[in-house]
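Sample entry was shown:
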Amino acid sequence: TSAVGVGGASEERQDMQAHVSIILPVHNAEPWLDECLRSVLQQDFEGTMELSVFNDASKDKSGAIIEKWRVKLEDSGVHVIIGGHDSPSPRGVGYSKNQAVAQSSGSYLCFLDSDDVMMPQRVRLQHQAAVQHPSSIVGCRVRRDPPNSTERYTRWINQLTPEQLLTQVFTANGPTVIMPTWFCSRAWFSHVGPFDEGGQGVPEDLLFFYEHLRKGGGVIRVDQSLLLYRYHPRAATHSVLESTIWAHRVRFLEEQALPRWAAFTIWNAGKQGRRLYRSLTAASQRKVVAFCDVDENKIRKGFYCHEDSQERPKPQIPILHFRAARPPFVICVKLDLTGGAFEDNLRSLHLQEGRDFLHFS
């Protein structure tokens, strides 16, 4: 839109300035885009809304679908901004989100993925929460489609307690409120961001989330299901290597959690526990006083010898039964897998999450 350099015109533009910008990156989203954009139209939010779309080199009919909905949305008072490019290859989701944010003007940002569907009250309820928590990322509960895909992950997203939204930030699950549900103020986004634009293979949401936490940001979840969150193997998520995410997580654990502890125990003498130990810096390794486990065979071995260590003699770390071990613990046992046996063991120790133990699985 061109600005008009006449007295009254700028004030009029001020009135039109949206309060909430819906940020929608699009890349070959033809199968889902109609449903996604219909859900923007159906929002019951009473304030002003705009939709900022960035079309990242889609080769399907996404562009035409966006144009079709632009008319309907504008007619119902939602301003639509469309950016994009048609180079041979996409620049990636980090770049697309940054562009969509940059071309938008709302005081609040509501992130949306092109394959997801918002419930009508999403913008209204998250906006309400964001106004009260200006330096927080506000998420929400989700409904997974298909319902039986990633059941453990979906349970985790929906059932974390308010405290766990901050204590479980080191796990393999990633951000404790998931990116397609994020809602925050533009001012806070600008303070933390932008997203990493490295493209495919970069976990840009995790890196942004970590930077948000480093800057003291809060994490809030609206406890209603406000998003239909689609699972399909084609999703961009599947292009990030587990080893990349592992390295970022270890670094974040060492930076944010381990400095508080003079010594700690790694809960799991198996592959994941040993992998964590080997991934730590030498200074962090020296703080590991023991591994602990329930597996009698591992405990009978008595200790773990770090063969690749540069130190002489090579460190030998005791392997203890978990009841004989001392907190704090970094726990490398997967949650919600053992029919509750592990959780029962942990609960029986009456420890406080965040102070006496952290989950790293």
About this structure: The longest strand covers residues 218-230. Confidence is low (pLDDT under 50) at residues 1-14. The chain is about 35% helix and 20% strand.
